[in-house]
Amino acid sequence: MNVLLFAAKNTESGERLKRSIETLASLGSLTDCWNISDLIHHLQTPDPLPEAVVLQAASKHELKALESFRFRLEQVFFVLVLPDADPETVARGHQLRPRFIVYQDSDFSEVGAVLERLEARHRNKTIQFSSFGTESGQ
């Protein structure tokens, strides 16, 4: 599985998040975006997005900046890490329509579990599709 990670560089929570993703058995590649300009570059390129995107909004300001990418984010499975559980922050996070939301003070074990389930589901669909193609070709 290829993952794009946007996290706060040199922060304890950003490093914890990266470590939780790096431990995935199914991880093929991890692309780090440590600042908003890197993220903009990756989201604006015409290349297909990776199978999963993990976005850590370290502040309400960063969360607001992510809103401009809503259309592109709707095209990919993405996990959103919110800076706090304030009702306004949570509502804003849900407007981005992530597949999973977790909070910055989490241990991020849930993020790894969600990404592993995504990979297993993707793998099962690929196997089913391959089997289907073989049967119909006979």
Please provide a written account of the structure.
- It is a single chain.
- This protein has 138 residues and is α/β, with parallel strands linked by helices.
- The chain is 49% helix and 18% strand.
- Strands 2-1-3-4-5 form a 5-stranded parallel β-sheet, sandwiched between helices.
- The radius of gyration is 16 Å and the shape is globular.
- The model has no long low-confidence stretch (mean pLDDT 86).
Strand residue percentage: 15-25%
| Average predicted local confidence, pLDDT | 86
**Molecular shape:** globular
Q: How far apart, in Å, are the first and last alpha carbons?
A: 31 Å
Kindly provide the radius of gyration, computed on alpha-carbon positions and rounded to a whole number of angstroms: 16 Å
- Tally the helices: 6
Helix content: 40-55%
Helix-strand pattern, N to C?
Answer: EHEHEHHEHEH
Residue runs with pLDDT of under 50 for 5 or more positions: none
Which structural class should the secondary elements be placed in? alpha/beta
The strand line-up of the biggest sheet is 2-1-3-4-5
Counted beta strands = 5
Q: What kind of sheet is the major sheet?
A: 5 strands, parallel
